[in-house]
Amino acid sequence: MPIFGLQPPALMQTILEDIGVALVVVDREQRVVFANRTALEMFDATEGVNGAHFSDLRRKFRFEDLSGKEIPLADSAVVRALKGERVEAQESRWKKANGEIKWLITWTYSFCVMGLDGVLALIIDQTAEVELRRRTMQVQKMETLGALAAGLTHDLNNVLNTISTNVALAKGAEDYPESLRPRFEQISRAVDKASGLIKRLMEFSRTQELHLRSVEMNEVVDDALKLLQPLLGDNVSLTVDLAPDLPFVQADASQIEQVLVNLIVNALEATPDGGKITVSTRLAHVPATPATDNHQDIVQMSVADNGTGIPVEIQSAIFEPFFTTKPQGTGLGLSSAFGIIRQHDGKIEVNSSPGKGTTFTVSLPIDAH
Fold first, then answer.
1. Residue 275: CA atoms inside 13 Å, Cβ hemisphere, count?
2. Tens digit of pLDDT for each residue in 208-266?
3. If phi over 0 gives left and psi between -120 and 50 gives alpha, with beta otherwise, what is residue 279?
4. Residue 66 in contact with residue 56, Cβ under 8 Å?
5. What is the DSSP letter of 178?
6. Contact of 302 with 360, CB cutoff 8 Å
């Protein structure tokens, strides 16, 4: 009997197309006999897949388990279910050709109905939920590391002060041997270097004193670019795109300039053979949320390059202190930038694709006074 003007098969087709879950039916010969609209969109199959062999489609993509190990075709949920195994929900990470990562969960069910024998696969894209959990865990981790860094900087400063005081006393002694002068100078240089590292740790832990005033972000960009001009070689194309009439932000201009210098230097290092770097500013609006009744206006500053990019698997760790992929790096540049921006009640975010480039975006609330 028709329902809402549709015959039952047509009604079922409409329901399956619009349920919002990827649904794929594979027969015993591993032919795809049905894939709904969500499945086609999920796997960018604009031309359809009906009649295609499942193994041919599956080999076009790389699926990994949660530890990053590739899941072979024979271990896929669909093939295992076709063999008669009872398969629990399979969580997987799917790396697309453009570097984008999707987190999927797949349920498979064997069936035999109306002469068709095969497997029904239900696939849910849980990328948003996974990324939200990861961001929450990352914030908690960074807060813990910040508290640890705050304690370390206090103790290390006391140690360095003791060393510096004793070196000064020794050099001031009447019987001070001149032959020891080079040794003491080496100690003093090491103390100065360690003090610089501690300063960066303090920036990450948000324990350094800020000198806040109303700042126009475009002026900070101009000052940073003047400072870095000698580093910009002929093989680097620099584009500056500054939005006019930006509202002021409450900031320590020297600290924000330090963040910008750090990001531009990173962009230069990511384009060792030359490339394009874009520094831009703009006014943006953050929509209202349950936690904030009104939308928020923010000023954003971005540094983008078309360099080597950052591997997806380490992007969540780049702001952690002492994390570095550079042989001579300290791992404190981005962590200090992270701490400075957080102390300004702002955010610093990264968007990167390996081989295609990286964009760092700093967001700061506008000055409400």
1. 21
2. 677 889 999 999 999 999 888 888 878 889 999 999 999 999 999 988 998 998 899 88
3. beta
4. no
5. G
6. yes
